[in-house]
Structures are given as C-alpha cells and as structure tokens.
Design brief:
Oligomer: single chain
Number of helices: 7
Strand content: under 5%
Number of strands: 0
Structural class: mainly alpha
Distance between the termini: 44 Å
Largest sheet: none
Length: about 150
C-alpha cells in the first residue's frame, strides 16, 4: 500500500510539473534571466505549492499523532548551516541555473527525449552516485576532535 501511494504521489507531482510548464528548462532559465526575458511564472508555481502544502501539513500534524505509513513524522530538527549543506546547495543551484533542470522536472521530461534531458539525467545520476560514495570528511574531523 505504501508503494502505491508513493507512485500516486509521484504521478501527481509529475503531472503538476508538466501542467505548470516546469518540465521545460527554458521556463526555468527565463525565470533566472532577470535582466533579459524574465518570466515570473516559476515564482507563482512555487507560491501556489506553498499555499497548498503549508495548510495541509498544519492540518495533518494537528489531526494525527503518526503518519499513515510510518511510525513517526520525520521532521528535520537541525537548524545550523554547515559547510557541507551550503556546498551542496551551491552545486545544486549552479547545476539548475546551467541546465534549467532539477531532478523532478528532469525525470518528468525524460520521456520527451529532448537532447538536453538525455545529457542532464545521466550526469545527474553520476553526481548522485559520486555524492553517495564520497567519504564524509566532516564526520571524521568531528570524531577526531571529540
């Protein structure tokens, strides 16, 4: 049952990306081109998503002690900014700005077989593989000083 709802959630998300035009990298690149052909529609899509999600989460947390398919809500508790997080965010932002894709829209646009997507997705997967198999140097440093 958990996998069926995960699939349905992914399909709804992908459909939303296609309907909003966010599977088109030109839309994202035009949003980032503030002094050229600026297109504010990405901000409206994000604002609309927040307007729907925030009240939904508030209602869910108020009405339930546990989620439907797990033992506990997994809400981030850390609030510090460490170099690893900032570096990852910067790499993500640069990749998004250069390619016009982030992972969700890239996978949604993959069936269209556009050349940009066919180049971006393998490099994205390679980057994910490298990130997963790169040793965490910050963890070793913290353990060594403790």
């Amino acid at each position: 049952m958990k996998q069926i709802f995960a699939l349905l959630s992914g399909l709804v998300f992908g459909t939303g990306l296609i309907v909003s035009g966010m599977a088109d990298p030109a839309k994202v690149l035009n949003f980032l081109d503030v002094f050229g052909t600026w297109d504010p529609s990405l901000a409206f899509v994000m604002g609309g998503a927040i307007a729907v999600t925030a009240p939904g989460f508030a209602l869910l947390f108020r009405s339930r002690q546990t989620p439907y398919f797990d033992n506990t809500f997994r809400v981030p508790t850390r609030n510090d900014l460490e170099p690893k997080l900032l570096t990852g965010a910067a790499i993500f932002g640069v990749g998004w700005g250069l390619g016009g894709f982030c992972p969700g829209p890239a996978l949604t646009a993959l069936p269209l077989a556009a050349s940009g997507t066919l180049i971006f997705v393998p490099f994205m997967l390679g980057g994910m593989w490298i990130a997963r198999h790169t040793p965490d140097l910050t963890l070793k440093t913290k353990e060594g000083t403790a």
